[in-house]
Structure formats: structure tokens, C-alpha cells
Amino acid sequence: MQTLRVRSRMDAVQAPIVQVIGDLIQQAPGTISLGQGVVHYGPPQPAMDAVRASLSQPATHAYQDGAGLPALNERLASKLRDENGIDVGGGTRVMVTAGANMAFMHAVFAITEPGDEIILNVPFYFNHEMAIQMAGCVAVGVATDERYQPRLDALRAVITDRTRGIVTVSPNNPSGAVFGEAVLRDVNTLCRERGLYHIADDVYEYFTYGSARHVSAGSFPGADRHTISMFSLSKAYGFAGWRIGYMTYPAHLESAMAKSQDTILVCPTVAAQVGAIAALDVGRSYCRPHVAELAGIRDVVISTLSALAPLASVPTADGAFYALLEVNTDLPPMQIAERLIREHKVAVIPGPAFGLTAGCHFRVAYGALQKETVVEGIGRLVDGLRAIAG
Ligand SMILES: Cc1ncc(COP(=O)(O)O)c(C=O)c1O
Predict the structure, then answer these.
(1) 3-state class of 256 per DSSP?
(2) CA-based, 20 to 30 A from 38: which of 125, 221, 304, 367?
(3) How far is the CA of 322 from the centre of ligand 1 (A)?
(4) Is the pLDDT confidence value at 70 over 90?
(5) Which residue CA neighbors atom 14 of ligand 1 most closely?
(6) pLDDT at 385 over 90
(7) From atom 1 of ligand 1, which residue's Cα is the shortest distance away?
């Protein structure tokens, strides 16, 4: 009998870190998780009502249009025009996907051949690196500056004739940085000049604090031919389990995107799309109070963690619901993360998952918990880091 081959392309791909940390948490009951990047609230009531009503419609249970329900696409087109400055139609298409993660996978398949390179600003979102590697391509990491903003010279320096795109995530996971309009515009222009795609992840578009503002790279003049923008209902509408995201992309990629969608998903879950239309009708106002509440939690997180100086530092994070902590220690981050869970009952995500291989970093996520729990968790983190690395 032939032995089964046990090697695959997945061997080079990192394990899903949230799951790895989740397994450790399970072994330490009572652990407060500052790990997973989710919000603590669920969908708006009209979305749930619309889903319930859709269940009696035969069309809900059948395959539908691969790009998304026409009614949802229309709703998205007006949202994208009014809020993001992106015009769907003409040279730009919109596609509904099972979350922004799937949009990213489609985009990588659509713009690359095996062996091509895609540039990620470090720290990056781990699933972006994983998707690029799964497609047989190379993720090229480029360090950002001390405020986690992209460095144009550094991006320019790593472009080769195999480069196909540059990814920006703003507001950023894992740093919480909101990229400045000028630097996003420069990245977009660089991509246009060098014949690259700019893949802009706008998933945290509504999550900005203080004077920070999100801007969509897809709105810049001339961006439509080379910009792929991705969005999600997961965070804004507490929709993570419903798997609804969407992207805008240049029309010349339509057939490639359709092939990927048809093969991987056929069409997004119809009932979830019906819910998405109702959620979008409620609109951005749904998450405003939640963002205001998160702003208060973020202030506590940043000021408490800042008090760890000089043992640790945390740059201001004006967006998403993350802070990226750098600890002055030679201890390996994974070892510290494990001890934090085992000995101090608090979980954070170690930096190497985000491409931070030098230094000792941890992502602290504060979106999933009530304020008191976050405060308790941050207290444990501070005590734990002092005990382990102080
Ligand atoms: C930057 C970024 N992009 C995409 C996603 C995935 O979103 P979705 O649930 O829409 O797949 C996440 C989720 O944490 C994220 O942080």
C-alpha cells in the first residue's frame, strides 16, 4: 500500500494563533481573554427580524447571484458612494463575500501567479500572510515606523518585477494605528506608478477615536483602476458569525473574481445577505454608541499600559480596538504569553503572529469585553508582565 503524502503547502503557513491561544485558555479556566478581535455586541434587531422573515421565502434556500443579491449590491453602492467616496459602476465592481477574509483570498488569486510577491506592512494581519502563502505566493514584510505608519521609501525599496500589490490595513489590526491620508495617498500613487494593486483593508472604518479619521484609498482620484478595497459587517454590526463582507475592485478583474467566488463559495449565504440589507438600512448610527464606549475603554487601556514604562511601551492607538505593546525583555513572546495565561489568567496575542519577529510584542484586544472586565484583564496583564519580565 502506498504511504499517504503528509507534506503540503500548509506546512509553511502559521497555525491560526487565535485558536492556539484559545486552546491554552481552555486549560486555564477563569482566564480573561484580551486575545480575539471581536466586538461584544450582536446585530441590530431589524437584521434579525429580516433573516427570520426570509426563511419562509423559497429563494432564501436556493443558489443566488455569485456577486451578491442585487438588492444588497445596490445598498452597498449607495453606502460606498456616500461614506467612502467610491463609485460602483463604470470601472469599479462590488462583490459580497463570506467576510473580508474571503475577499482578500479572492483578490490574491485574481492578481497573482504562483511565486509572485505581495508586500505587507509589518505588523500585518496574520490571515493576510496566510492567504498569500496558501496561494503559492510570497508575503514580503516591510517594517513600519515607530508609530506603525507605512514608510514609503521602505516599500519602494522592496518592489521587484514579481511584486503584484501592496496591502494597507487602516485602522490597523494589530497596532490600532490609523494611517494618515497623505501616506495612504502616497502608497496608492506608488502602486499606480509601478503597475501594482493597492489592496486596502477598510474593515475597521467606523472605529476611530479622538480626531483620527478613516479615509478610503479607493476614493483617491485615479484609484479605480488599481485599488481593491475590502469591508466587513463583522465588527460594525456585530455580524462576525454571519460571514458577510464585500469588496470593490477594478472591472478588468471581474472574470477572475467570479471564478474564485464560484469555486470557493458559489454565493454568499442568502439569509445573511437579507440580514445585511436590514443592518445597512439601520446604518452607521448603530455602532456609534459602541464606538463611543470603546473610546473610553481605550483611554483606560492606553493609560494603564503606558504606566508600565520603562518595562514596556505602547504607542497611541487611534483606531480599531487594539493596542500593541512592546516589552523590553529577551524572553520569547510565546513563552510569556503562555505564562500570562497559566500564572496570571490573562490572554494576549504574541507579536510573531503579526510578523514582529524582532523584539517582544503583544496585541491587546479590548473590543469583546465589558469595561470592568477589560480593566481587570489589563490589571492582570500589568502585574503578570512585571512578575515575568520585570
Ligand atoms: C484587518 C482585518 N481584516 C479582515 C478581518 C476579517 O473580517 P471578516 O470577519 O469580515 O472576514 C479581520 C478580522 O479580525 C481583520 O482584523
Answers:
(1) helix
(2) 304
(3) 13
(4) yes
(5) 37
(6) yes
(7) 173
Going by C-beta distance under 8 Å and a sequence separation of 6 or more, which residues neighbour residue 317?
A: 175, 176, 177, 298, 302, 323, 324
CA dist., res. 200 & res. 175, Å (int): 16
Query: What is the Cα–Cα distance from 113 to 48, expressed in whole angstroms?
Result: 41
The DSSP bridge pattern shows strands 138-143 and 117-122 to be parallel
- Distance (Å) from CA 371 to ligand 1 centroid: 23
SS3 label, residue 95: strand
User: Quick count: other Cβ atoms within 10 Å of Cβ 214?
Assistant: 20
Which residues does a 6 A CB cutoff place in the pocket of ligand 1? 37, 99-101, 125, 169, 173, 201, 203, 232, 234, 240, 245
Q: For helices 288-306 and 371-389, give the axis angle rounded to 10 degrees.
A: 20
Average pLDDT score over residue span 115-140:
98
Which of 178, 234, 246 to mutate for ligand 1's pocket (most ligand atoms within 8 Å of CB)?
Answer: 234
What mean pLDDT do residues 187-213 have?
98
pLDDT per residue as tens digits for the range 265-283: 999 999 999 999 999 999 9
Of all protein residues, the one whose alpha carbon is nearest to atom 2 of ligand 1 is 203
Q: Which amino acid is at 265?
A: L
Surface-to-core class of residue 310, CB atoms within 10 Å of its CB (0-12 exposed, 13-18 middle, 19+ buried): exposed
Q: What does each C-alpha distance from 111 to 122, 151, 374 come to in angstroms?
A: 21, 24, 41
Q: Round to whole Å and give the CA distance between 27 and 31.
A: 9
Q: What is the value of pTM for the model shown?
A: 0.96
101 Cα–ligand 1 center, Å: 6
CA 184 to chain centre: 17
Q: pLDDT, tens digit, for every residue of 44-58? A: 999 999 999 999 999
How far apart CA 188 and CA 14 sit, in angstroms, is 29
**Does 289 sit behind a cis peptide bond, omega within 30 degrees of 0 on the bond before it?**
no
Q: What average pLDDT is seen over the chain?
A: 96
Is the pLDDT score of 63 beyond 90? yes
How does DSSP assign 129-171, residue by residue? HHHHHHTT-EEEEEE--TTS---HHHHHHT--TTEEEEEEESS
Question: Omega of the bond prior to 171 within 30 degrees of 0, cis?
Answer: yes
Give the type of residue at 208.
Answer: T
Determine the angle formed by the axes of helices 100-111 and 254-264, rounding to 10 degrees: 130
DSSP-derived 3-state class of residue 66:
coil
